[in-house]
């Protein structure tokens, strides 16, 4: 029986060798809000969380949104890679993931005007800005307006400050390499800083970083170029995008696909993870099984029409992908090259091994840690 989900996939690299990933079930980066010392340093919780996913058989395990500077954290309890002292604790995560035979990735991001919010934990007033007298800090964005109604107004970045943010992404990428990560994913989705520049909902600038698509995508292009310059040619560079804002006057998939096509054609980006939303209240989003897959399919088609197939960039899709048959169908119909599993992986860190069993992968080839052999997946 064929099972595309559990065939290897190679994320292309500028040096031509690529990063071999054992299967096409990836872990979507998911914030854990577990840095109790508020210093951005990974803890035992992160080792336990990511380690379980690696042992559970996912081909690529991606650490949560990791801030490139302290003010870019979504919450005070987020991970960071803005300081050399954070590298060794990240390397501890990478070493364990590699020890399970999996590829290790990290998502680098900056929350912009959606930073300094309460962590999304039980009893927390998530989605609102933390007051300064309770540990909050001033935020920055494309504009000086609140990114969301529940959040405080941000400070519009000057062009000089934008350059500093670009440098911060490059610095974090260097530290990610020092930690041993195999792939970096740039966070350009979910209403965070790069998305705030991309979307006409939050970018009303009149300088070279606003206006038409070329202006609104300038920050993204500069971040990609700066990171690619310091990120080794032997390692792939990925990006997560919100392909649409789900409102008429927002960002649309055609625009996003155009920018991605250019980045792939330039050999800068070789993994695209397609998500959506993050700048509205969500009332217009048709959430349901695989609801974002058509957006990934459109990105895949745009790349293919430009002669850019899987050998140029791997496209993964995410969003209410919960079972093996659903995931296999997405791949078999060519809608994406891989799937990113989020909440379903929180429910069951062994999702990949279970899915492989359901797809009749031979028992000796099931992608779980050998210590779990007696589980009879």
UniProtKB/TrEMBL annotation:
Cofactor annotation: FMN
Protein name: Oxidoreductase
Keywords: Flavoprotein, FMN, NADP, Oxidoreductase
Coiled-coil residues: none
Superkingdom classification of source: Bacteria
Residue ranges occupied by any NADH:flavin oxidoreductase/NADH oxidase N-terminal domain in the UniProt entry: 5-359
An example molecular function term from Gene Ontology annotations: NADPH dehydrogenase activity
Protein species of origin: Corynebacterium nuruki
């Amino acid at each position: 029986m064929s099972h595309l989900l559990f065939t290897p996939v190679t994320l292309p690299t500028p040096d031509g060798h690529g990063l071999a990933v054992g299967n096409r079930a990836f872990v979507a980066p998911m914030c854990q809000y577990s840095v109790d010392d508020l210093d951005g340093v990974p803890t035992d919780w992160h080792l336990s969380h990511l380690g379980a996913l690696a042992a559970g058989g996912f081909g690529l395990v991606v650490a949560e949104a990791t801030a490139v500077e302290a003010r870019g954290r979504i919450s005070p309890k987020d991970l960071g890679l803005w300081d050399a002292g954070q590298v060794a604790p990240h390397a501890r995560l990478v070493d364990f993931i590699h020890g399970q035979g999996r590829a290790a990735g990290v998502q680098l991001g900056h929350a912009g005007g959606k930073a300094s919010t309460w962590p999304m934990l039980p009893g927390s007033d998530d989605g609102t800005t933390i007051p300064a007298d309770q540990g909050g800090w001033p935020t920055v964005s494309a504009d000086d307006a609140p990114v969301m109604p529940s959040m405080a107004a941000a400070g519009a970045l000057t062009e000089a400050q934008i350059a500093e943010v670009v440098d911060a992404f490059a610095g974090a990428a260097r530290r990610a390499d020092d930690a041993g990560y195999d792939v970096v994913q740039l966070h350009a989705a979910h209403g965070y800083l790069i998305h705030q520049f991309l979307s006409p909902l939050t970018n009303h600038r009149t300088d070279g970083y606003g206006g038409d698509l070329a202006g609104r995508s300038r920050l993204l292009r500069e971040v990609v170029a700066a990171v690619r310059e310091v990120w080794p040619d032997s390692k792939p560079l990925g990006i997560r995008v919100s392909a649409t804002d789900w409102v008429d006057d927002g960002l649309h998939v055609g625009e996003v696909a155009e920018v991605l096509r250019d980045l792939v054609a330039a050999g800068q980006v070789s993994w695209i993870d397609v998500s959506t939303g993050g700048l509205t209240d969500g009332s217009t989003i048709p959430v349901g099984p695989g609801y974002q897959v058509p957006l990934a399919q459109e990105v895949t088609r745009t790349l293919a029409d430009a002669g850019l197939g899987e050998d140029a960039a791997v496209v993964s899709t995410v969003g209410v992908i919960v079972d093996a048959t659903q995931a296999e169908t997405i791949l078999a119909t060519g809608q994406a090259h891989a799937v990113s599993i989020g909440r379903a992986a929180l429910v069951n860190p062994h999702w990949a091994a279970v899915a492989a069993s359901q797809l009749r992968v031979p028992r000796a080839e099931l992608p779980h840690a050998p210590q779990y052999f007696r589980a009879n997946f």
